Amino acid sequence: MKLLVVGGGGREHAIIRSLKKNPQVEIIYALPGNGGIAADATCVPIGATEIDKIAAFAVENAIDYAVAAPDDPLVLGCVDALTEKGIPCFGPRANAAIIEGSKVFSKNLMHKYGIPTAEYAVFDQMDAALSYLDTAPIPTVVKADGLALGKGVIIAETREAAKTAVRDMMEAGVFGKSGSRVVIEEFLTGPEVSVLAFTDGKVVKPMVSSMDHKRSGDNDTGLNTGGMGTVAPNPYYTPEIADRCMKEIFLPTIAAMNAEGRTFQGCLYFGLMLTPNGPKVIEYNCRFGDPETQVVLPLLESDLLTIMQSCTNGTLAETEVRFAHKHACCVILASRGYPQSYQKGFPITMTEEAARHTYVAGAKLENGQLLTSGGRVTGTTAIAGSLEEAIREAYRISDGVRFENAYRRSDIGQRALQALK
Ligand code: AMP
Ligand code: GLY
Fold it and tell me: Which residues contact 233 (CB under 8 A, 6 or more apart)?
């Protein structure tokens, strides 16, 4: 089989490695992929949002099955475009990807169908948002409606900070059109859990839970990033909570999307907060998380390609989705300065062991040499029988990945370890 994967980060590298385990796979094209992915797939310089070019490439190369991994191509209709050309593609159509593409849509959906989430108000006029903030409970959370590279959420500790966030989004336009509408919502507290789930629009099969580490610094200090590391499973996500999430959140969400005529097929990502009043949805993503995928897929024992195809053709109920009862930890190496400004172009070296355990997120190949080209550069994953050992191994193996100005958090998994004790 000839496969195509749209995207070019660590998540896509993990997806490609997992797909390659199926002996029927002859070739995988990555559009655009990256310098590290080139070791596992054939990279083609077509951008992830160049939907027409992606569809044309898929037709010319007689692709049997495609996977659209990042949010923007999904929201732009990549799955629709490929499907129209007769190429089956994993992921939601644009009318369902809106569950991530518009926070106003997802909040209204949860409200309408009684799915637990933070209380909220929506504004498309700045003056109304500012006067609402005169009396809103503090801290409060200001969110840009549209996609904003994971940066469109501001937790405001004061009224002034909340108003500044609203002005930045609605007046200065720091997130462009994405900020022309905002959601202002109740500040929730509790441990966060990421649950990725396969769905064919009829049944939902959650993957092993995970925990992201979004802040740039140790002990959850510093700026929000795309994620500096992950562990799976998440110890806060007990079987009782999982049951409750299935009944109160996962099944109602699938049913709500169907009722709206927006059947969701693909990977639905539930960003949950386990509040004192029960589990609530912080956000939906219409795709695999990054770097959650780098700990979840290595634990998958069933065949990823078969599962993905079953999501597309509606046979997920009969398809096995089984995970190893082990622990995984992924440690990200970033360019010093990320998520703000950083230098690029440094040579990357890896020991043979590190290369086997490492997914490449931001690197390019130049004359056969791998060079850093992004904020998050690599993610190194280890699997072990205990969380403690998985963490120790992930750090030990990631010592084998070297480049100038490399930066990593030193406490990935520590909070999870405390929770286990
Ligand atoms: P998001 O981009 O929606 O994942 O939000 C980024 C982060 O902001 C989340 O992972 C949470 O830690 C935090 N966050 C978002 N919404 C809330 C909320 N209503 N209450 C508390 N924290 C929140
Ligand atoms: N790691 C969070 C995300 O993929 O959105």
Answer: 208, 209, 210, 327
Please say whether the beta carbons of 407 and 222 come within 8 A. no
Tokens of 354: 């590190």
Q: Is this structure's pTM higher than 0.90?
A: yes
b/e 135-152 (16+ beta carbons within 10 angstroms → b)? ebeeebbbbbbbbbebbb
Q: What is the pLDDT of residues 221-277, one digit of tens each?
A: 998 898 999 999 999 999 999 999 999 999 999 999 999 999 999 999 999 999 999
Q: What is the DSSP letter of 317?
A: G
Strands 2-7 and 65-68: parallel
Q: Tell me, using a 6 A CB cutoff, whether residue 218 lines ligand 1.
A: no
For residue 399, give Cα distances in angstroms to 10, 241, 370, 413. Answer: 18, 36, 17, 17
Judged by its nearest atom, the ligand closest to the C-alpha of residue 285 is 2
Q: Which ligand has the nearest atom to the CA of 291? A: 2
| Residue 290 Cβ contacting ligand 2 at under 6 Å | yes
Long-range contacts: 55-60, Cβ < 8 Å, 24+?
55/81, 55/82, 55/84, 55/85, 55/87, 57/4, 57/29, 57/31, 58/4, 58/82, 58/85, 58/87, 59/85, 59/87
Ligand 1 centroid – CA 15 distance (Å): 26
pLDDT of residue 179 exceeding 90, the answer is no
d(CA 18, CA 37) in angstroms, rounded, equals 13
